Every structure is written in C-alpha cells, then in structure tokens.
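FORM 7B: Structural annotation worksheet

SECTION A. Query
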Amino acid sequence: MKLSAKSASTYLLIITRREASEILLLPNGRSWMLPRVEIDPEQRLAEQATLEAAKAWKIETYCLFTPNACHPDDHRQAASIVMEAVKENAKAPAGTYWIPRSVAMRCCDSADAAGIKESLERLDAYATDEGEEHFTHCGWLRELFRWTQQQIAPYGMQLTGAFRQLNAGPTFSLIRFETARGAVWFKATGEPNAHELPITVALARLFPRFLPRILGVHAAWNGWLSEEAPGAALDEITEFAAWERVAEELARLQIESIGRTDELLEAHLRDLRIPALRERIDPFISRMNELMTAQKKQSPSPLHSSELKEVAEGLKESLGVLETFELPYTLGHTDCNPGNIFLTQRRCLFLDWSEGCVTNPLVTLQFLREYLAHSGSQEPAGGEKLTHAYLRPWARMYTPADLRRALTLMPLIATFAYAVATDTWRELDPEADEKQAGYYRSLARRMHREATEIVQRCELCQE
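SECTION B. Predicted structure
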C-alpha cells in the first residue's frame, strides 16, 4: 500500500500466537524488531492491518485491539496493533521468528520493547477482566467460527474458512465470512451503539422485505449473524434511477411501519417525535449559548443569544406547523448513507440501523436529499425527481401539495433532529473536545440560516 508520508501513519504489529506466549519478530542487525505497516487514517484500520500482514509476511491474522491511545503521528511512542495468528501453531513466515514474550521485550530496542510491554499488560488485564471486552481475548475468532457454523448449518451452508475483518475493538466487531453458498456477516456493537442489536432484530422481523435475514444472535457478545445483502450499494450505482427507486422504497417501508410506534420504541429506536423534539429545544439552545461563549476563534463569528433565541422560536413554530399536517409517525433514519442501501432487481435493503428512530417520515427524506446533494450526481433537477418518487406511494393517503408544504420545514427540523438524536450535545466538554464543540456550533449556525429563510418565506407569502 503506497501512501504519502504526510497521510500515512506507521503502526507496530504485535502479532501473537499460542495464547500470546510468543510474538513475531524480525531480525534487525544484532537485535530484533516488530513488523511495521503504514496505515491510511481514512480507511478501516483492522482491514488494512490484516491485509498488509498477509501481503508482506504471508501470515493470516486478525486484530484484537489498539492498546495505546496516543495519536499515531505522535513520535514519542509509535502506535501499535495487537493481533493474533488465525492458526494457533502458525509457522513463522520466511525471515521472521516466533520469540517467547519474556525474551521479546529484552531483545528489541526501547521503542519496540515499550510497545510490547504496554500491549501485553493490556492483553493480560483484558484476560482477567470479566467485562464486555469480548474481542480482546485470544482465540475469540476461532470460537466465532464454531458458533457461526452452528448457526448456518440448518440453512445448508458451510464455512470455507475465508473471512475478512473490517472493524475491530474491545466491544465492536464486523467480519465477513465466506460460505460455499455466498457470504454471511457477523456484527457486534458496544456502547454507545449497543442498541443496534435489538433494533436490527426487530426490524428484520417486522419488515423482512427491507432487511437481510438474521441467521443467529450471539447475546453474550451483543452480536448477530445475517445473510449478505445481495446486489450493489447505492453509492456504487451510477444511474440516477437507483436514487428514485430507493426514495420510493423508503416511502413504502415507512408506510408499512405506520401503527407500529410502540413496537419500534420498545426495540430502542430513538424517539424523535414532535413532543420529544419540542422538549429538547430550550435545553439545546441553552447549551449552544455556552458553546458559543466558549468559542476561541474569531471566525466564523459565534451566534449571539438573540440569534439563538430566533432559532428556538423558529423551531417551535415549525414543529407547531408540522403538527397541523397530521402526518403519521414512522420508522426513520438520521443517516441514510448510500453505502448502506443495497439494490437488486426485486429488493431494496436498508442496513446499519444504529441511527434508527421514530419520527415524521419527511425527516428521513430530507437526509436522503442531503446525501444526493453531496453525491456528485449531475442529474438535472435531481432533488425534485427524488422527492417526486418518494411522494408517489404517499399519494393515496395525503395530497402531494400538503407533503411539499411540510417538506419546506424539513431543512430546519431535520438538522435539529440530527443534533439532538443523541446526548452528545449535553455531555461534551468544549475545552477537552473543541472539534466536537465546533461541529455543534456549525449545526446551530445552519439552523439559524434555515430559521431565517422560513421567516422570509412567510413574509413573502403575506405580501
């Protein structure tokens, strides 16, 4: 993998075998050193690390965790990735050697020795901890292989042994397993996305036409196994007609969810209905006042309290108007990423429901329109065509004119719904996380622009 020195980050690979009793090292003159790889920070770390290990040293591995919290560009201590050989008795690749862990720390230079020491201490701590860090323990992949085979056997499927690890973390995992009849995916999530399991299971049961089939649930790991979504992702399809089809299928999914509010909320989808949004306006505005006061940069200018008051008034008025349209609450999503929407000739599948919610249906359409606007599509009047396709299934229930009037409120309401969907805005410390604070300030500025435009449109209508 060729990367520029500016974009690449060097990681030490601490590859273990036999319950971490041995570590893979390379000769380095009269001493020894850890394998090293360059990682693109814009790509998935686990996937890159395992691919590079296979490419450079012909060894099949999987990631356990990244022990040091320092940034990989901080040269005081190189970042490292703790990995394990897939096979317990994997042979050392040519030019490398398996060295006992106690010896490894003594025969490397200080930087590598420090990385080994910290990694092994963390690994040992995880091994004795009875917490939820399931994917830090040696041998968990072999256990997952066994469990997966048990789940797919009733469907006449057999694992081939090939797999691809995309994400890794103490409580998170995303792995693709190949079978003789296609592929299956295992996904596990921890906080703050632990709710994705009950959501996914519930939606797959309630709306099987729109989600991949669930093949098994690993409750202890908060994970599930599902069939691979067939077809192609929306962001891989060049024809604009695919966007129109997704918009129409989204509307059909939402219509199918009408009347299931209680079931959806019990499955831990976020409550972004109008009363819930209205309750968060004043606390959110108060918090934005604090973040604006804490802003250190001169540009862009922080909003004054009077401007934030205008945002609050615009939100309250817009939610009040939206209520008059009496639209039903439906299944919604605050992150309609086209990479998680798959199309075949017969089906449209929606994946990754960690940002799922119950809300006004047009909120989700607004997010889909936003993704289209940033997709690079050159389709003339693409946003209007997308909206037209979405409104078609609703035509038998509501007049398109009413829906379009309600849609004019969505740039403001959807931005607010996105901002308050989680409690991050309540909890963040602007001194410790200036980047996140700046992001919320930018959302507040956008809401101010949208609220101002709504007022201007109303004034024009009155003239």
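SECTION C. Observations
The radius of gyration is 25 Å. The first helix runs from residue 45 to 57.

SECTION D. Sign-off
Analyst initials: ____
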